[in-house]
Amino acid sequence: MEEKHEECGVFGVYSQESRNVAHTVYYGLYALQHRGQESCGIAVSYANKISYYKGMGLVPDVFADGMLEKLPDGDIAIGHVRYSTTGASQLLNAQPVVFTGKCGKVAVAHNGNLTNTKQLRDELIAQNAVFQTSIDSEVIAILINSLSDGDILTGIKRACTKFKGSYALVIMTTDKLIAVRDPHGIRPLCIGTIDGEVVAASETCALDAVGANFLRDVKPGEIVVIDSTGIHSHMMDGVPKKSSMCIFEYVYFARHDSVMEGYSVYEARKLAGKLLAKNYPVEADMVSGVPDSGNVAARGYSEESGTPFVEALARNRYVGRTFIQPEQSQREDSLSVKMNALRGNVRGKRIVLIDDSIVRGTTMRKIIKMLRDAGAKEVHIRICSPVIKHPCHLGIDIQTYSQLIGAYKSEEQICESLGADSVKYLTVEQLLSTCEGAKTGFCLGCFNGEYPYPMHDYEVDELKINKH
Ligand code: SF4
Questions:
Q1: 337: CA distance to ligand 1 center in Å?
Q2: 444: Cβ below 6 Å to ligand 1?
Q3: Domain contains 204
Q4: Any domain includes 261
Q5: Is residue 405 part of a domain?
Q6: Whether residue 272 is found in the same domain as residue 193
Q7: What is the pLDDT, as a whole number, of residue 89?
Q8: Distance (Å, rounded) from C-alpha 338 to C-alpha 3?
Q9: Distance, CA of 169 to CA of 26 (rounded, Å)
Q10: Residue 305 maps to which CATH number?
């Protein structure tokens, strides 16, 4: 749960007839809320027009007060929940991006982050393109338009040869819903069906939320076009043999009831806990997870070791994840509001505390202090991923080496800095073994510095200079 920013969630629906498709998107976005809590939006295609509404905040708040009902009935709709990865946090940057161009009216919703935004933006500005926002998703929209010859598929195919970075897109014209996944498959995207309608979503939990049946994952490098003639698959050129899905989707980002690439997120997390128990055992009275993301693994640890699972921390369900606010100062303030130690459970106890990862260490340090103040005798930290040593610019906001405690401290130093009795991480090999059931390769860039491709915009300033 620590200080990582979510990326975004996308959802789209195609219906053969006009109805309140915005409601379907609303429930889909509700299920994807964990992927972005800063802003959201829904766009509806009807009668050759696109109507949309976007706002700052959570889905139920933005679409309260009759705003959902104000969206017209239509046959296609897409939606987006956002955490800012590029572009400042403001309404102007909320998605979907809606524009009128060579292909008529188009709406684009993007999960991921381009690593060559600056270069593409500069090139487009040199060709007199005008930008309304600071987000890479507008670069995606404008490039698709500028490379199109009036056919949206041509524009998308050509634009995808220029994009570097991660992108899972849902795109809507007045007669098509299109789902696109980058050639490395870094961010997830799947499609499902319900009563003859087609749904596209970042995660299967959103399909479940609207009663859709899972059809399949969108393949890395695939462009799926859904229109009145059916579902049509097109592949980009030059798709690498090995895909590189972000392994953190299994560790943390996805909801644990989602299934990605044929493998349950819940299973991966439980296995991570079991491996921690097997490889890094410790004499303890109880094992607990940092809520909510450490809980499944804590149950796995408990099953494997026989150490009782007991809750150590109570979470205030009405406060978003600690990293919902873009500013560090806001994040730090929110922790003590967000959780509290269960004194009766932890007093005098030797605790194994499981979390998904450690980024800066500031949150974990406070949690350990909270547990010790509540009377815990020992606090042993077990982490379901390897040490994060490198930034991520592929959709998760870990921008510089200086933000990462693992980039400049050894495991012993991290343990000392956090004030824990012991700290152990899964190795890269162990983490990979928790995901063996997934039909995909993985990006491991934040652990080993090997990204699916060069980091372009980011290379000079952060990756090379800021290393401590
Ligand atoms: S660098 Fe890490 S967080 Fe970023 S996409 Fe790769 S595995 Fe995911």
A1: 29
A2: yes
A3: yes
A4: no
A5: yes
A6: no
A7: 59
A8: 13
A9: 17
A10: 3.40.50.2020
35, 392, 458, 462: residue to mutate for ligand 1 pocket, most atoms within 8 A of CB: 392
Q: Are residues 110 and 215 in the same domain?
A: yes
Count structural domains, the chain. 2
259 inside domain: no
3 state DSSP class of 228: coil
pLDDT tens for 75-107 read: 999 999 998 655 555 788 899 999 999 999 999
Which is nearest to 8 in space by CA: 42, 43, 32, 41? Answer: 32
Say if residue 129 is in the same domain as residue 66. yes
Sign of the torsion angle spanned by Cα atoms 297, 301, 307, 308: positive
User: Residues 339, 441: one domain?
Assistant: yes
Residue range(s) defining the domain that contains residue 117: 8-243
CB atoms within 10 A of CB 241: 5
Radius of gyration of the chain (CA): 22
Q: Is the CB of 446 under 6 A from ligand 1?
A: yes
Active site residues: 8
- Burial state string for 400-421 with b = 16 or more CB within 10 A and e = fewer than 16: bbebbbbbebeeeebbeebebb
Residue nearest atom 8 of ligand 1, based on CA coordinates: 246
Do 389 and 435 sit in the same domain of this protein?
Answer: yes
pLDDT of amino acid 431: 98
Mean pLDDT of the residues in the chain: 91
Output the pLDDT for position 3. Answer: 46
Cα 347 to middle of ligand 1, angstroms = 37
Q: What are the tens digits of pLDDT across the range 235-291? A: 999 899 999 999 999 999 999 999 999 999 999 999 999 999 999 999 999 999 999
Look at 40-44, 57-61, 431-435 and tell me which has the smallest mean pLDDT. Answer: 57-61
The ligand 1 atom at the shortest distance from the C-alpha of residue 391 is 1
CB of 247 closer than 6 A to ligand 1? Answer: yes
Question: Tokens for 9?
Answer: 């969630």
Same domain, 227 and 272: no
Helix/strand/coil percent split, the chain, to 5: 35, 30, 40
* DSSP character at residue 408: H
Q: Does residue 388 line the site of ligand 1, with CB under 6 A?
A: no
Q: For ligand 1, is residue 248 a contact (CB within 6 Å)?
A: yes
Question: β-strands 49-56, 39-46: how paired?
Answer: antiparallel
Do 300 and 227 lie in one domain? The reply is no
Does any ligand 1 atom lie closer than 6 A to the CB of residue 22?
A: no
Ligand 1 center to 99 CA (angstroms) = 31
